[in-house]
Amino acid sequence: MRHRIYLALLAFLNAAAYSGAQIPMEEIDVIKKYRPVLSDLAKVQVKAEPPPRDTTRLPITYRAWNEQLRMSFLPAEVKPLAVPRLADEPLQNNLIKAGFGTQLSPLLEAYLSKGRSSAAHYGLQTRFTSARAVRVPFQSDSRWEAMLHGTSFFQQTALNGAITFDRNHFRYYAFSDPVEKPADYCSDGLLCTTLFGTGVQVGLRNTDPNKWAYEVRLRYRHQQQNALLPLLQDTVRWRPREGTIGVQAKLAKKISEESLASLELHYQSATYHADPTDTSLILVTASPSYTHRFRSLVLKGGLRFYAGSERVELFPLAEMQYKLAGDYLIAYAQLHKQYALNTFQHVIAENPYVIGYVPFSGKFIEALGGIKGVYAENLSYNFYLSHRWWKNQIFYYPFQQLLLYYHAVAHPAGTTLLFGGEAQYRMAENLAVRFEGSISRWRPDGMDHPIGRIPHQGKVTVDYRVKEKIRVEAAVYAFTGVYTVTPAGDTVALTGVIDPNLTVTYHYRPHLSFWVGGYNLANMKQRQWYGYISYGIRAAGGVLILF
Fold it and tell me: What percent of the chain has pLDDT over 90?
């Protein structure tokens, strides 16, 4: 029943609505203001196709290794094509030179080295020469020198050391009449002498320039002579011995870019023994100084303190250097005082025929001035003028009774004026010329001439290379006549000496060369020491091996 009522009511409402729609009316219902928009239009459907996939390249796969590959070959060095790099020549660490010459003279030299590295380097140097004169009676000699050296580098320091040995064996042959002496004088050691020398050196220095600079050196040397000598109708066995110790320390601190403070300490001692004489000398030196550099001027001033076996002294130290024209022309001057122990080792190095020597100390005050300079790294020079006031200077007198031996005599006082210099010219790697020489004027108090001293001397060396195959080395050494005393007591001047030498080396292979040389080409027989003549002209040749 209820449903029927609902249906009847719905039918009534629909009939009423239909009847109202058929009635004409003048009213209009506005729903909204018309505004056309793009969304009311129809949309065009566009479907863009992506470009086709490039399948010509396949994806690359790789593998990252977690360790370095071990290769059986060395990869080639990467070099720029526009700037090719020349291969470095291998350094030669070892050299052996051997030869033979006139006067039955063999020669052997060896330079053996590990080579330099950041950790250490060490090597051995040795040289042996011998000669026996054919036309000079009783004349023969031999010399052997050797040095073992090494250096170890640490983080900021370097330690170096060396062991040295030398042996010089020769005969006394300065006879007025050689026929009077039998030829077997050397069979039992008579008229023969041997000089032995051994030494040890140790040094320590720092390699960091930003800190204090220091260097310490210790040296010890033993010198001995063994001889059986005929002396004034008697035979004397002569065996002097000498031991020298040297300690040197240098300390410097760079205060600024223009100033430097330094201190040098030296200790020297010599102990000489020859029956029945024993001599001991000690010398201590301390030299504090201060150096200041201006734009073109460098000044150095300080003191030099001496304490020896005899006295204690203090003397000023002054140096000056001024650039007149850059590095081309530099003027310099010095004023200082120097002490020295005239040891047995020092004397026999100048004159090996000295016997009966007792060491002593000497000193001199020197005022020196000169000029030096460098031009384009091809020409360098240094010329100076020195004036010395000395005490206890050594002069060499021959024995009056027997001219075999020499005395080393200490003269009490005198002066020496010396003009010397050196100059060097180098043209690329083909030519190098060097000159060095000195002209001296000795004025010993109470003595007319410097006995046994060379007044003037000079040396010129030339090194010339021809296309890296031939090397020519020439040297000329000359000195004026030396004053000596004859057995009659007269002072005479010996003739001057000029000694030209020439050596030619042919580099046959990078590691093999041949050499030939001529010595004393002027055939001069005179020597510095009265009664001892030279071999004259000599020639030698041999082989040179590098590896």
Answer: 56
